[in-house]
Amino acid sequence: MSTIVFAFAIFCGWLVFDIVKHKKITLESVLSSLVVAVVAGIFWWILEWIF
Fold first, then answer.
1. Helices (DSSP H) in 1-51: which residue ranges?
2. I need a surface site. Which of 13, 31, 40, 50 has the fewest CB within 10 A?
3. Does the pTM exceed 0.90?
4. Which pLDDT belongs to residue 1?
5. Taking Cα atoms as reference points, which of 50, 49, 38, 51 lies closest to residue 6?
């Protein structure tokens, strides 16, 4: 459960960062935020599994 919350937080943070940086929301920024969130979620899940 914490992996999903962490990935969602990363997605939102990355999306807000892109919106502030480019002053608009685009499909590319949403997709890049989604990719980063999925990768971060996978790494977080691996860390939870190891420790």
1. 2-22, 27-50
2. 50
3. no
4. 83
5. 38
